[in-house]
């Protein structure tokens, strides 16, 4: 059973922003949860609609080694995906760290590193899960909640399931990286052999997904050969 510190708020600007502002005061593995956010943020500077009914939390991590930080984000995505499946949703992963159901977004993760004078200080994993919202038409992208899938769970219940799972495998991923979760991740990743376009940095590449490497990067077969991409937006 997960026993770490959980700080709960009725409203925050953003759980990620709060974790970053207070990083030095908060201990390793502190969880910040907000019932609503007034300035929820997504990847690529997008807004994350954060009304009551959704689950909005950040985990502040100060791992003993930093070699596999991107894989911790992938592990969180897998932990959310498995928790949603356990609840009855046919959830799957869109590399690197989105969770979808019926082709629509069920969860997004924004991971941010906090750095100081001495370099890396902490990783903030910010997780938004659509749990009990009845209407997500203002989300800005096709989105779905567990409730819309006919699954009745509270944000708090979903949080507990995710944290139990995430921390059960946490040390393994810190020490061994993607290799320790690759098989389980691939089992929820339906894009192998599929044509996709990946936007990464200012570039875009179209091709067929070959596989995910032991480092968690995506190997894309293109007419020019195999391209290895470590972070990007998959368009399918
Ligand atoms: C994405 O663009 O897919 C990532 C969305 C991440 C949203 C979560 S909600 C909790 C945490 N606080 C934020 O401001 N963002 C993340």
Oligomer: single chain
Q: Beta-strand percentage?
A: 35-45%
Major pleated sheet: 7 strands, mixed
Number of strands: 12
The separation of the N and C termini measures 38 Å
CATH-scheme architecture of the largest domain: 2-Layer Sandwich
* Poorly predicted regions: none
SSE topology string: EHEEHEEEEHHEEEEE
Mean pLDDT: 96
The amount of helix comes to: 10-25%
CATH topology of the largest domain: BirA Bifunctional Protein, domain 2
In total, the number of domains comes to 2
Treating each run of at least 4 consecutive H or I residues as one helix, how many helices? 4
The CATH class designation of the largest domain is Alpha Beta
Rg over CA atoms, rounded to whole Å, is 17 Å
**Bulk shape:** globular
Query: What ligand molecules are bound, each kind once?
Result: biotin
Structural class based on helices, strands and sheet pairing = alpha+beta
CATH level 4 superfamily of the largest domain: Bira Bifunctional Protein, Domain 2
State the strand order across the main sheet.
1-2-3-7-6-5-4
């Amino acid at each position: 059973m997960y026993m770490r510190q959980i700080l709960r708020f009725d409203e925050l600007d953003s759980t990620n922003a709060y974790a970053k502002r207070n990083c030095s005061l908060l201990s390793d593995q502190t969880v910040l949860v907000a019932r609503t956010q007034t300035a929820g943020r997504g990847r690529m500077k997008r807004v994350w609609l954060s009304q009551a009914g959704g689950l909005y939390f950040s985990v502040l991590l100060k791992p003993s080694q930093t070699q596999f930080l991107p894989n911790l984000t992938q592990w969180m995505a897998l932990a959310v995906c498995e928790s949603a499946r356990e609840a009855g949703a046919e959830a799957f992963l869109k590399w690197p760290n989105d969770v979808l159901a019926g082709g629509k977004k069920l969860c997004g993760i924004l991971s941010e590193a906090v750095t100081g004078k001495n370099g890396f200080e902490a990783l903030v994993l910010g997780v938004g899960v659509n749990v009990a919202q009845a209407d997500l038409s203002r989300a800005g992208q096709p989105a779905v909640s567990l409730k819309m899938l006919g699954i009745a769970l509270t944000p708090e219940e979903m949080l507990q399931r995710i944290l139990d799972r995430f921390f059960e495998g946490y040390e393994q991923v810190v020490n061994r990286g993607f290799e320790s979760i690759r098989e389980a991740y691939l089992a929820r990743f339906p894009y192998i052999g599929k044509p996709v376009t990946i936007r990464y940095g200012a570039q875009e590449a179209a091709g067929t997904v070959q596989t995910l490497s032991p480092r968690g990067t995506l190997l894309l077969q293109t007419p020019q050969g195999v391209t290895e991409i470590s972070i990007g937006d998959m368009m399918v």
